[in-house]
């Protein structure tokens, strides 16, 4: 029989270089990939672990994403705060954690979510990106039409 | 000191900004018919991508009363038909005029224009979004014909889609007004707006409040909002202002309406001392003269 500790290691292998996004609200790992622009055609090696036990998060579950050979920059990290405000990001070099970051809600987000108002100018052919003022965790206001997103932010991700 | 370069949304203006505009509009009152040469040789472009009567004509009139001139463009005659973006149109027109009034069917159009324009943008209405100059003239009307301090006001009609109502309650809240929102089910003001108001009461029954207010602000209920025509007729009738409805109201009540009205205020009400909606339309001139003078000449 395989001991519990080894089972965990089999599930979540350490990476040599890259970023580990931990404590993602359970169910949001794929949305984190969307925010980071990781699609099925990306060449990056990405490990996704969903619904693993967590003492820190509500409901006792969390998701983890490991991206090899890519160090996330602050602007990318902060976008993650929109859907996973308790996430932590570890930057790994040669198997060592060299930097640990908490996500911080940005004041303004550009070209991350699309406005739910189909008649908003940001949903037209004009040469502009969507832009939202972050009022609170999970509450955004469109800088153009002032529509509010206060639930299901993930469904509006670009 | 008024620091705004554009007039896009009431949300951009502080109470001091609004007071400044209203005080300036008061100074413009004697000139609203006689004229004053404050903006000689200045040009205002009127870009109206949606039909408008009052807003377009009153800006045209205001600019001419100030000694300036106007250029007009409607979507039918513009290069938008050739596929030009609004962004390009704004950049080009900014080379021809000193300020632009924009009405556009999409919400947020004026905000986008203000981000790219080299000249001041005044939002003349963007879709179901904002119409700040209407709000400023509404406030000016209330100030002139009633009072902004310690005000009891009821807004009646389509408060869900009516853009004038949204901007107006936001502004009235700056003046600590006691606001009552009277709307049928389904046309009530969106919760995200109501939740920002400090003193607000919601009801469906006009009779419950009409005797307790200084201002009754009536808006049109549009037929197309109702899937059932009979339901529309029932609601429209119960929200119609007639002489019997006005029995027992405060002596100093004023009735306002952004116009055009259809039949939500009976013609017979026009003859009463309460009716101020045509006066309200006139106040659009001094208020827009004030805004143009402030934006183009600088606030002094």
Quick take:
With 158 residues, chain A is an alpha+beta fold.
What is the fold's blueprint, element by element?
The complex is a heterodimer of chains A (158) and B (300).
Chain A: H1 4-11, E1 18-25, H2 29-35, E2 46-53, E3 61-68, H3 74-80, E4 88-93, E5 96-102, E6 108-110, E7 131-136, E8 139-142, E9 148-149
Antiparallel strand pairs in A: 1-3, 1-4, 2-3, 4-5, 6-7, 7-8, 8-9
Chain B: H1 15-28, H2 31-34, E1 43-48, H3 54-65, E2 69-74, H4 86-96, E3 99-104, H5 109-116, E4 121-126, H6 132-145, E5 152-156, H7 163-174, E6 178-182, H8 191-194, E7 200-203, E8 215-218, H9 229-238, E9 254-256, H10 277-297
Parallel strand pairs in B: 1-2, 1-3, 3-4, 5-6, 5-8, 6-7, 8-9
Helix pairs in contact in B: 1-6, 1-10, 3-10, 4-5, 6-7, 6-10
Kindly report the name of the CATH homologous superfamily of the largest domain in chain B: Aspartate/ornithine carbamoyltransferase
> Assembly state here?
heterodimer
Count of β-strands of chain B: 9
Overall pLDDT level of chain A: 87
Shape of chain B: globular
CATH class of the largest domain in chain B: Alpha Beta
The tally of strands of chain A reads: 9
Q: Strand order across the biggest sheet of chain B?
A: 7-6-5-8-9
Number of helices of chain B: 10
Backbone shape of chain A: globular
Give the low-pLDDT segments of chain A.
none
Q: What is the CATH-assigned architecture of the largest domain in chain A?
A: 2-Layer Sandwich
Structure description:
The complex is a heterodimer of chains A (158) and B (300). Chain A is α+β, with helices and mostly antiparallel strands. Chain A has two domains: 14-102, Aspartate carbamoyltransferase regulatory subunit, N-terminal domain (Alpha-Beta Plaits), CATH 3.30.70; 108-156, Aspartate carbamoyltransferase regulatory subunit, C-terminal domain (SH3 type barrels), CATH 2.30.30.20. Helices cover 14% and strands 33% of the residues of chain A. Chain A contains three helices and nine strands. Chain A has helices at 4-11, 29-35, 74-80, and strands at residues 18-25, 46-53, 61-68, 88-93, 96-102, 108-110, 131-136, 139-142, 148-149. In chain A, the strands form two sheets. In chain A, strands 2-3-1-4-5 form a five-stranded antiparallel sheet, covered by helices on one side. In chain A, strands 6-7-8-9 form a four-stranded antiparallel sheet, with no helix packed on it. The longest helix of chain A is centred in the N-terminal third of the chain and has 8 residues, at 4-11. Chain A starts with a helix and ends in a 9-residue tail after the last strand. The mean pLDDT of chain A is 87. Chain B is built from ten helices and nine strands. In chain B, helix 1 (15-28) packs across helix 10 and helix 6 crosses helix 10. Chain B has a five-stranded parallel sheet. Chain B has 300 residues and is of the alpha/beta class. Chain B has two domains: 10-130 and 283-297, Rossmann fold (3-Layer(aba) Sandwich), CATH 3.40.50.1370; 132-280, Rossmann fold, CATH 3.40.50.1370. Helices cover 37% and strands 15% of the residues of chain B. Chain B is globular. Chains A and B meet through loops of A and helix 5 of B.
């Amino acid at each position: 029989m395989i001991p519990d500790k080894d089972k965990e290691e089999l599930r979540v292998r350490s990476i040599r270089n890259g970023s580990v996004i931990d404590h993602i609200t359970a169910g949001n790992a794929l949305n984190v990939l969307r925010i980071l622009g990781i699609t099925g055609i990306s060449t990056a090696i990405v490990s996704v672990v969903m619904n693993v036990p967590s003492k820190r998060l509500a409901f006792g579950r969390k998701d983890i994403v490991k991206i090899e050979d890519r160090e996330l920059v602050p602007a990318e990290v902060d976008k993650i705060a929109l859907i996973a405000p308790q996430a932590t990001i570890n930057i790994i070099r040669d198997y060592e954690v060299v930097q640990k970051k908490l996500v911080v809600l940005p004041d303004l987000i550009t070209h991350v979510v699309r406005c739910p108002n189909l008649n908003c100018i940001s949903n037209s052919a004009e040469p502009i990106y969507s832009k939202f003022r972050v009022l609170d965790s999970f509450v955004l206001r469109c800088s153009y039409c002032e529509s509010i997103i206060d639930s299901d932010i993930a469904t509006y991700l670009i | 000191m008024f620091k705004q370069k554009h007039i896009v949304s009431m949300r951009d203006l502080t109470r001091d900004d609004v007071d400044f505009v209203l005080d300036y509009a008061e100074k413009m009152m004697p000139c609203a018919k006689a004229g004053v040469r404050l903006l000689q040789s200045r040009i205002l472009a009127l870009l109206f991508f949606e039909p408008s009567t009052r807003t377009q004509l009153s800006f045209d009139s205001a600019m001419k009363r100030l000694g300036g001139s106007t250029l007009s463009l409607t979507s039918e005659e513009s290069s938008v038909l050739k596929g030009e973006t609004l962004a390009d149109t704004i950049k080009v027109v900014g080379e021809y005029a000193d300020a632009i009034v924009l009405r556009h069917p999409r919400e947020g159009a004026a905000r986008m224009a203000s981000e790219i324009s080299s000249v001041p943008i005044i939002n003349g209405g963007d879709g179901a979004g904002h119409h700040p100059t209407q709000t400023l003239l509404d406030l000016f009307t209330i100030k002139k014909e009633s009072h902004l301090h310690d005000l009891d006001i009821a807004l009646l009609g389509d408060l869900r889609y009516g853009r004038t109502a949204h901007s107006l309650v936001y502004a009235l809240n700056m003046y600590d007004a006691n606001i009552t929102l009277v709307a049928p089910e389904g046309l009530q003001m969106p919760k995200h707006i109501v939740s920002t108001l400090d003193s607000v009461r919601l009801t469906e029954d006009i009779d419950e409040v009409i005797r307790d207010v200084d201002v009754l602000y009536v808006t049109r209920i549009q037929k197309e909002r109702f899937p059932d025509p009979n339901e529309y007729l029932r609601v429209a009738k119960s929200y119609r202002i007639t002489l019997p409805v006005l029995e027992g109201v405060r002596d100093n009540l004023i009735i306002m309406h952004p116009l055009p009205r259809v039949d939500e205020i009976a013609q017979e009400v026009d003859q009463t001392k309460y009716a101020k909606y045509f006066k309200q339309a006139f106040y659009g001139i001094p208020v827009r003269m004030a805004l143009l003078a402030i934006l183009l000449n600088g606030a002094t």
